[in-house]
Amino acid sequence: MPNDTAMFLGQFLRAPATIGALAPSSRWLAAAVCAPVPERGEPTVVELGPGTGPFTAEIQRRLDGRGHHLAVEVNQSLAALLAERFPTVDVANDDATDLRRLLSERGLRQADVVVSGLPWAAFPDDLQRGLLGAVAATLSPAGAFTTFSYIHAVPLNSARRFRALLAERFEEVVRGRTVWRNAPPAFVFHARRPRP
User: Fold this and answer.
1) CA-based angle 17:165:109, to the nearest 5?
2) pTM, whole model, 2 decimals?
3) Following CA atoms 172, 131, 30, 45 in sequence, which dihedral angle do they give, to the nearest 10 degrees?
4) Nearest-angstrom CA–CA distance, 51 and 117
5) The dihedral of CA 176, 42, 47, 114: what is its sign?
6) Which of 3, 33, 69, 174 is the 20 to 30 A CA-CA neighbour of 166?
7) Could you read off the pLDDT of 149-195 as tens digits, one per residue?
8) What's the Rg (C-alpha) of the chain?
9) How many CB atoms lie within 10 A of CB 166?
10) At what angle do helices 4-14 and 76-85 cross, to 10 degrees?
11) What does the pLDDT read at residue 154?
12) Which one, of 124, 141, 133, lies nearest residue 96 by Cα?
């Protein structure tokens, strides 16, 4: 994936509010974010904002041909790249706020795991609420939601608002260790038991 950084940077310059990063996530961050993906059974895994696919690759490694992996990418160029790169992944070039419809169209009732690469701190309040509401509404009661935040974004009002919203929508929210081997460094949020 030698040209991923250049492509990612180009898409960021075109739409910084929807891309939210200058480079793809590292394999170390991908491993931390995708840890809740089960290594057995037939889980439904939803990935939001897969970009060029670092989390996608880790989810596919963990699933090893099992279950259903739906990747929702709003950026048309990135969605096309992802579909070409990962032909066994169900890539939807769509809006993640329509997650219930996207699952229903595929005959899927709920997600067992939702993995997010979305730039939450770049989003306004109504979009954060709409996206997180869609996640909580489609996640199974025993399901897991994981996302990450860059450490430099911690003091931002939008990042604080998102952390409060996570606590409002989920009974359990755990902040993981900082992943220093990422540019920029980031930490992971693991959330479980969505509130009705």
Assistant:
1) 85
2) 0.88
3) 80
4) 8
5) negative
6) 69
7) 999 888 899 999 999 999 999 999 999 999 999 989 999 999 999 99
8) 15
9) 20
10) 160
11) 87
12) 133
3-state secondary structure the chain: CCCHHHHHHHHHHHCHHHHCCCCCCCHHHHHHHCCCCCCCCCCEEEEECCCCCHHHHHHHHHHCCCCEEEEECCCHHHHHHHHHHCCCCEEECCCHHHHHHHHHHCCCCCEEEEEECCCHHHCCHHHHHHHHHHHHHHEEEEEEEEEEEEHHHCCCHHHHHHHHHHHHHEEEEEEEEEECCCCCCEEEEEEEEECC
Residue 68 pLDDT more than 60?
yes
Q: Distance (Å, rounded) from C-alpha 172 to C-alpha 82?
A: 32
> Phi-psi category of 67—alpha, beta or left, where left has phi over 0 and alpha has psi -120 to 50?
left
Q: Count CB-CB contacts under 10 A for residue 86.
A: 18
Question: Considering only CA atoms, which of 54, 97, 91 is closest in space to residue 73?
Answer: 91
Residue 83 is encoded by which pair of tokens?
Answer: 């579909």
In the structure encoding, which two tokens stand for residue 35, read together? 């840890």
Type of residue at 32: A
For residue 176, what are its two tokens?
A: 């993981």
